[in-house]
Amino acid sequence: MQITVHGTPTTLEGKQMTIWREAPAARVTLLDGTPNVIGMIAPTAQLLIAIPSLKTEVCSLGAKTFNELIRRFDKLKTVMVTTDDIDFVRDYVEREGIDRSEMVIDTSREFAKKYGILISEGKLKDRLARAVFVIDREGLISYLEIVPEITDEVDYSRCIEAVEKAVNIKQKGHEHENWMGA
Q1: Which residues contact 181 (CB under 8 A, 6 or more apart)?
Q2: Is residue 41 part of a domain?
Q3: Is residue 135 a part of any domain in this protein?
Q4: pLDDT digits (tens, 9 = 90+) for 106-150
Q5: Is the distance from CB of 110 to CB of 118 less than 8 angstroms?
Q6: What does each C-alpha distance from 2 to 5, 119, 133, 161, 164 come to in angstroms?
Q7: Residue 135 is part of which domain span?
C-alpha cells in the first residue's frame, strides 16, 4: 500500500488490514518502560490510533482531539501509538493533559508491521502512517482508516460513528458458550 508524504508517494510495509479481519496482537512499550500487548479480543471495544510524531502540529492536534471525543465512552479502551521517544511522550501526555487514552511506544515497530502502516522510505522511514483501527469485542477490525496524505487528519466523525457502533454492539459469544442453553 502507498500513502503520500507532502505529495511524495511512499510505500507502507507490513500486512494490509481489512474490515472484519481479526485484529493481530502486537507488543508495544508503556510509558513506564514495561511491555504490553494491544489488539486482539478484549472485554471492551478498542480504538487504536497510530500517530506518526507528536512533535508535529497535525499529530498533536489529533491526539488532543481524540482525547476529547472519546470522553463519553466508558466502555472503550483507547490506545495512541507512536514511535517518538518515551521521555518526550511522557512529557507531552502530562503537558497536554492526555487522560482518556493510553499512550504507548511502538519500539520494535511490531504494531506498525502487523497493521501494515510502517513507512518504509523517505524522511519518515520507520514512523507510523496516520491511521485508526476500531476493534470490536470479538477482536475483529470493524473500521479502519489509513490517511492517504500524512499531513491530513483522520475523518473524526466517521471514526467516532464506528466507535459508537462497536461499543454498543451486543457480543455474540462463542458456540461452546451456548451449548448449556440447548
Answers
A1: none
A2: yes
A3: yes
A4: 999 999 999 999 999 998 999 999 999 999 999 999 999 999 999
A5: no
A6: 10, 9, 17, 26, 29
A7: 2-170
Cα separation, 8 vs 20, whole angstroms: 30
pLDDT digits (tens, 9 = 90+) for 2-60: 999 999 999 999 999 999 999 999 999 999 999 999 999 889 999 999 999 999 999 99
User: Nearest Cα to 28, choosing from 12, 39, 17, 18?
Assistant: 39
Residue for grid cell 470522553: 71
Sorting pLDDT into bands at 50, 70 and 90, what band is 178?
very low
d(CA 138, CA 21): 10
The per-residue pLDDT for 169 is: 77
Count of other CB atoms within 10 angstroms of residue 13: 17
For residue 28, tell me if it sits in a domain.
yes
d(CA 160, CA 133): 11
Question: At which residue does the C-alpha cell 472503550 appear?
Answer: 76
The residue type of 68 is E
